[in-house]
Design goal:
Elements: H1 3-10, E1 34-35, E2 49-54, H2 58-69, E3 74-80, H3 84-94, E4 101-102, H4 105-110, E5 117-120, H5 128-136, E6 140-143, H6 151-163, E7 168-170, H7 178-189, E8 195-203, H8 206-215, H9 227-230, H10 233-243, E9 248-256, H11 286-295, H12 314-323, E10 340-347, E11 352-358, E12 368-373, E13 376-381, E14 386-390, E15 395-399, E16 403-404, H13 417-430, H14 441-460, E17 464-465
Parallel strand pairs: 1-16, 2-3, 2-5, 3-4, 5-6, 6-7, 8-11
Antiparallel strand pairs: 8-12, 9-10, 9-17, 10-11, 12-13, 13-14, 14-15
Helix pairs in contact: 2-3, 5-6, 6-14, 10-14, 11-12
The structure holds nicotinamide-adenine-dinucleotide.
Residues 54-60, 80-83, 86, 104-105, 121-124, 126, 144-145, 171, 173, 217, 230, 414 line the site of nicotinamide-adenine-dinucleotide.
């Protein structure tokens, strides 16, 4: 069970069982992961931030639920997206003026600035131009990760934001996850002494990988970018976050496109799952991943993104699987991004880190981390509680990472980190206080540059030495 499911299960319990800040013994801990103390962000005399959405797909739409749940805090005043169906949905949800709907971000950027902030959630290769254009117009920016698909473009975005004095937050949601922040707090407090090594694993999940990285939007480098940047920039960023101010000085990486190639196509398989006679034996069958879920009335992600016009019924889904990208045989796609990758890092001071990304697992999204220190060991597997083993007294202590009790369902993805990210961004803009942002320009650029260096190592089959500028 992941962190968030446990939170909802335990939220039914009473507040009285959750007041202590002290670490709990193993049997007590699950009662204590709801944060009842933090007030809702819309309590009292709060400022409302006006926001333009650029790219109203899965991510752009998700952030707008902050305005639905906390209307005193955020108002959506414009939308740019070529898809009329998403524009219509947002129109109904947010009562946006007719003249603030745009087919393309450029139309919005040509106007006088009409919102305090912009959320840019366009496809990976469409981040740089709008980010720079809106920075020049003076909009504070929440930019989805990856910032951009080349190191040069990432640097340009950061420079544009700094030159124009606008706040930049990047969609590195995992930094805002209560477990990540609690881990950092524990490391800073010295509970495991000095960090020696971080081992971190990102299990993508077999059907998730097939959906997004074999059939879907992130399957092909020319169309989006390489796996480590598209998927695991979160993880390299987390390792950097936990390592604190230490700089990575050396990196090496290996990775391959395993299994999802033409040579592995089973005998008798068709090009499309809906008319495939061996589909029943295939774990990646589109019938299993989408159609069966929809037949059980489960139209949430990933089923929700299969029909490009947003329609959600069996007939439209069947048509989309017969004709669209998500019904293709996984052994006959134009995918070229790696399905398994390892990255080894050495930091200034000698600390090391090892990262693994794996498609072939059932542990979808349940990241696992062990941090080895001179006085103890810290572990987290799929969420709260964090386990700390103390070498001095040979004792294990569990530390819960709390989540707010009023967590809106639509912002609960990534263990609730979506809520914490958008709340930090809106608070930073409202109070003009960039220190509220954990994924600001400098930290994000540093970890993105490391991702580019790791990929260079994989491609060029060499150890890459990194200088002070991340080059
Ligand atoms: N932070 C995270 O954990 C996380 C998770 C998933 C995706 N992402 C990133 O978020 C971004 C968006 O991903 P998504 O899943 O929402 O994709 P999506 O395809 O659902 O949404 C992208 C939207 O951008 C729109 N768009 C395309 N061209 C446009 C233009 N010229 N002007 C305005 N809008 C335009 C598309 O019509 C679409 O609605 C990507 O960069 C992706 O990598 C981040």
């Amino acid at each position: 069970m992941d962190f968030f499911s446990r939170v909802f299960r335990s939220s039914k319990r009473s507040k009285s069982s959750s007041s202590s800040q002290e670490p709990k013994t193993p049997n007590e801990v699950t009662n204590d992961i709801i944060d009842f103390d933090t007030p809702r962000p819309d309590v009292g005399d709060v400022k409302c931030v006006t926001v333009l959405i650029v790219g109203a797909g899965s991510r752009g739409m998700c952030y707008t639920y902050y305005a639905v749940n906390f209307p005193k805090r955020m108002k959506i005043v414009g939308v740019a997206d070529p898809r009329s169906c998403t524009r219509e949905t947002l129109k109904m949800m947010h009562h946006i003026d007719e003249d603030k709907f745009f087919d393309d971000w450029r139309e919005a950027a040509e106007l006088e600035k009409f919102a305090e902030a912009v959320i840019i959630a366009t496809p990976d290769r469409l981040h740089k131009e709008p980010a720079i254009a809106f920075a020049k117009k003076g909009y504070h920016i929440l930019l989805e990760k990856p910032m951009a698909v080349t190191p040069e473009d990432c640097c340009e975005i950061v420079n544009a934001c700094k030159e124009n004095g606008v706040i930049l937050a990047v969609g590195h949601v995992m930094r805002y996850h209560p477990v990540s922040r609690k881990t950092r707090e524990l490391l800073d407090s010295g509970v495991i002494g000095d960090i020696v090594h971080i081992q971190h694993m990102e299990p993508v999940g077999y059907w998730h990988f097939a959906h997004s990285y074999v059939r879907g939007n992130w399957r092909n480098e020319e169309e989006s970018t390489f796996s480590l940047l598209a998927k695991s920039c979160h993880d390299i960023d987390l390792i950097c976050y936990w390592m604190g101010n230490r700089r990575c000085v050396k990196v090496s990486s290996f990775g391959t496109v395993s299994h999802f190639t033409k040579e592995n196509k089973p005998e008798g398989a068709s090009s499309r799952c809906l008319d495939c006679t061996v589909e029943e034996m295939c774990p990646y069958s589109a019938q299993k991943i989408y159609l069966k879920k929809a037949q059980q009335k489960s139209f949430g992600w990933p089923v929700s993104v299969v029909c490009s016009d947003g329609v959600q019924d069996i007939e439209s889904l069947t048509h989309a699987l017969k004709t669209g990208p998500y019904g293709r045989c996984v052994y006959e796609c134009d995918n070229d991004v790696v399905s398994n990758q390892v990255v080894n890092m050495e930091f200034e001071g000698g600390q090391t880190a090892a990262f693994t990304m794996m498609a072939f697992t059932t542990d979808l999204g349940a990241r696992k981390t062990t941090i080895y220190g001179t006085k103890g060991e810290l572990r987290c597997a799929g969420g709260s509680p964090i386990e700390v083993f103390d070498f001095v007294n040979n004792k294990k202590t569990l530390y819960p990472a709390k989540i707010v009790g009023f967590m809106p369902m639509h912002l609960s993805a990534h263990g609730g980190a979506d809520y914490y990210l958008i709340n930090s961004f809106i608070s930073a803009v409202a109070d003009n206080d960039p220190s509220l942002i954990l994924s600001g320009p400098d930290d994000t650029l540093r970890s993105h540059l490391l991702v580019f260096q790791a990929e260079k190592s994989r491609r060029e089959n060499c150890v890459v030495h990194i200088d002070k500028d991340g080059q």
